[in-house]
């Protein structure tokens, strides 16, 4: 028997676009949904996707943070005549299913959405009136309609090259909104306990979706900080546990990061964050621990590990030191001084993280973590890999002109074995790109370079302006020309 599919329009927010596919793939896997994607251009905010039924579509929208809304597709065309022909045909062929929406006691609303082109209210009403052949009998209700249709025109992605006619015209019945309301609900602006490196609500939710967090899961963040990643996991029903090397941070004794706050409130903590969002029952604990010296029982098993390790930019990448090596500046051997902490290189940190995940994740459990990169250095071969973990998603978030971080999702594919003979075989292979070793150093060097470049560009612009002015017979003021000469001399 051939399968019957239903078509839907997925309307995405044009934010964190690179994470869209990864989130979609994670959620269809989480709910074991069958689908067929009919859109080839994934950067478009509108996708046409087939699911077997509304139930599957609703499951997807019940978790997606990238999704604005999902519509049951009624018509789709590249030209207006094609669109109207298909809409008329849809209403005719689906008479029994759609009749209920047109009844006199069913209030309705039609929203006109145009992407990359602005229309006045009058123009929008004109567009609605082109569909006067729809046999709607109910009253208009703009506030709380029983049925809501959307007429959508897509005018391309480039605001500097808007096409003369829309690329796509779509019409559909609103089925559900995505979960973008959670971004506001969990916003850091109103959160009780935050720090300089707290992860924003949207990315935290995306990470929890990447980890395929389910109700009742056990989730761990080994670099927990203020617990933002635990908040989103708990919001999706997970029991959460965290660790951090920084006692002051975990106990909210560090300096407040809000400019308006002089001292921290007594009740600031990761636990109070969870309480704020009604997830206090999902809080297990947080412990002060150095990740390079794991303290966990070997049989402890997590459903997922979601974490944002330190890159050394806004927080130190440190580990607790042992009495192995004395400080270099020791004057005599008997006056040896041992450092309490030492630098924890990104390379060692990711080696430990992947090994830890391979040991403590359940089979098919996921590790979701960020890795910083210099954009020029990035290549897929530089990503950390491990024999027991498979990289299933990798999406980028730009940080500055030169730097980005990648959200990596690994899935455990092989049971961990303590067998000595296997040890060397499963060793994490993390290459040593400059991006991994010296991220901090290059981050700041680049900042200096680009400041110099910026000054040089501005000096050149001023010089061009000055010459132009002279050409037009205008003599620049003395002080300005002196400054130009000075800048020129500085950069020549
Ligand atoms: C990027 S922050 C994490 C921020 C966190 N996601 C949040 O929302 O607040 C990295 C954290 O790793 C911690 N850290 C640094 N080195 C560590 C180590 N060796 N073991 C455990 N935690 C460490 C830092 O104290 C910092 O809180």
Question: What does this protein look like?
Answer:
Keywords: Cytoplasm, Methyltransferase, RNA-binding, S-adenosyl-L-methionine, Transferase, tRNA processing, tRNA-binding. By secondary structure, the chain is of the alpha/beta class. The protein has three domains: about 170 residues, VC0802-like; about 240 residues, Rossmann fold (3-Layer(aba) Sandwich); about 40 residues. Strands 2-3-1-4-7-6-5 form a seven-stranded mixed beta sheet. The protein has a seven-stranded mixed beta sheet with strand order 10-9-8-11-14-16-15. Strand 8, helix 8 and strand 9 form a beta-alpha-beta unit. Helix 7 crosses helix 8 and helix 14 crosses helix 15. About 0% of the residues have low confidence. The protein binds S-adenosylmethionine (SAM). S-adenosylmethionine (SAM) binds next to helix 8 and strand 12.
The CATH superfamily of the largest domain turns out to be: Vaccinia Virus protein VP39
Percent range for β-strand residues:
15-25%
The overall number of domains is: 3
Mean pLDDT: 89
User: What does the main sheet amount to?
Assistant: 7 strands, mixed
Q: Can you list the strand order of the major beta sheet? A: 2-3-1-4-7-6-5
Query: Considering DSSP H and I runs of 4 or more, what fraction of the residues is helical?
Result: 25-40%
Q: What would the principal axes of the Cα set say about the shape?
A: globular
Find the CATH topology of the largest domain: Rossmann fold
Terminal CA distance reads 76 Å
